[in-house]
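Limitations
The structure tokens in this dataset are predictions for the assembled complex, not deposited experimental models. Users should treat interface geometry with appropriate caution, especially where small molecules or nucleic acid strands are included. An illustrative entry is reproduced here so readers can see what is and is not provided.
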Amino acid sequence: MSRPFTPKVLTANDLIEGDAVWLTPRDEWSRNMADAELLEDEAVAQDRLLFAIAQSDVVVGAYLVDAKASDAGPAPVHFREEFRTRGPSNYPHGKQVGA
Amino acid sequence: MYTYTDFDEKFVRERVAQFRGQVERRLEGALTEDEFKPLRLMNGLYLQLHAYMLRVAIPYGTLNARQMRQLAYLAERWDKGYGHFTTRQNIQYNWPKLKDIPDMLDALADVGMHAIQTSGNTIRNVTADHFAGAAADEIEDPRPIAELLRQWSTDHPEFQFLPRKFKIAVTGSPKDRAVTKAHDIGLRMVRNDAGEPGFEVIVGGGLGRTPMIGKVIRDFLPKAHLLPYCEAIVSVYNLLGRRDNKYKARIKITVAENGLDKIRDLVEARFDELRREFSGFDQDLLKKIEAEFTPPTFRDAQLEGYEAYRAANPAFRSWTDTNLDDHRAPGYAIVSVSIKKHGATPGDASADQMRALAELAERYGHDELRISHEQNVILPHVHKSDLPAVYEGLRAADLATANIGLVSDIIACPGMDYCALATARSIPIAQEIAERFDALKLEHEIGALKIKISGCINACGHHHVGHIGILGLDRAGVENYQITLGGNGTETATVGERAGPGFSAEDIVPAIERLIGAYLHIRNDADETFLMTYRRVGLTPFKAALYPEKEAQNAA
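Predicted assembly:
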């Protein structure tokens, strides 16, 4: 039996900067996870993954990952994805300082 | 020190030009990521969690002031003003942009450096004893051999697509400071009965998910046979090593599955063929390389000033107690500069600090610097009369921490703060342990202790050979830290034993504190180090300290 589908977002790294990005409902890549499209249907998610993989001139290594709805928009479930929305913990670098 | 020949210069420049074209084609969309990835990896460029990462080789850990200044320049011009020194004597830049990489590589080529073969299934940066050419206990400087191996392995056409990566370490001392027994090939210089220097050749060591201590494949290899013998080993591995399973592809598995005797027979047979092809050009080349590693002209000077400064300045005295090692020249010392200030990121140096180190190396250190696998910087040749000036210079650059070999001198991989492969963070754990023991003011009382932290099973933080090893894992979506005890990375290398169930990020530092508390209680006296105590009493009393609830249950 296959596992029930859990909500997901599509994420990747920006080709030039390497920064974490998420696919929005408007087919754009945002540096802010809250802008992401929350994918609650498996068939739609697979379709969006194919779209993302075809965007290889803009992003690298697109993958689907679990996410949950929040008031601000989609939010991470796993700590790894949470770190990707923020940056490293040893310096104020990366997204947590907007750079 | 080795300086690039016209051939080296041309080769490195050509590689940069090729990569510049490849980056342009990637940015234009002419190359897909699948096509580009192997090309960028060949040039040391990774894509990590938040950004690209460029890994630059510091061959056998040696660099001069000009090169160190250039590393500082790269950090400031194209990164966030710092660099991270790694356990394989590389420096990593955590924030470069793809379009800037060719310029960074050109800037490295300006000072005879590159990022070639710092990734991929090739022979990686050859590492060496960081005290090479300076250590009192050394038979010979191993760096000419390491440079010969670098030239031989760089772009070697037979070895560009090995089953897996391949790491070689070399030491010229019987005392192993290069962790040779945890490398694919470890070379330990020894003398034969006639007193001639040669190598004990160790094969099939490695850490990672299947840690193995290397096995001696040849007790004594004459120096002149080194290159054909190493080529024979890699050649046998290239054909025999498994390519069906990435986790079984390293030579340690090849040796374990086939047995050392079979590997030795194959290597000796291949060596017999190869040695005839090495008609002596390698020895001519080695002679030229050796001429570039002539020791500096050591000087004589009075030591009264040093002794008086030491007597008058307790902080300086404490630093000389922990951060100096015996030099082979009278009046000289090897200075280990700690890149482990309490609470700072292990191995990270700012551009200003790199420049300060370059300045000190130039003024007081015969223009030489080393990067240790323990993520510190070494000034290998300092006359003791210059130590007060060196110390004050280091203090001004916030580099005078007196903790070499102590509990806060922790190896930590970048972990999940940067690395795409990591399963948990390492850096914050190292920071917290260092700060905790600094606050307790126990560090010097605890004495020699090596804590090593890896943020995943690949073990870049060498946790298996830490006296206390910490491995960060993902347990059901939460960071979890497993402790191993009794590991050791020297000539008596041992893989540590797992102590029991892991601890959460909140509980790991108190657990380490209980562990060390137990050691202080159990040890015979202050001369019995943590490792000696562990070897005497074994795991049980430490387990009791780590898991007091379980102990209480057992007693009930």
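Some entries come with short summary sentences. For this one: The two ends of chain B are 66 Å apart (CA to CA).
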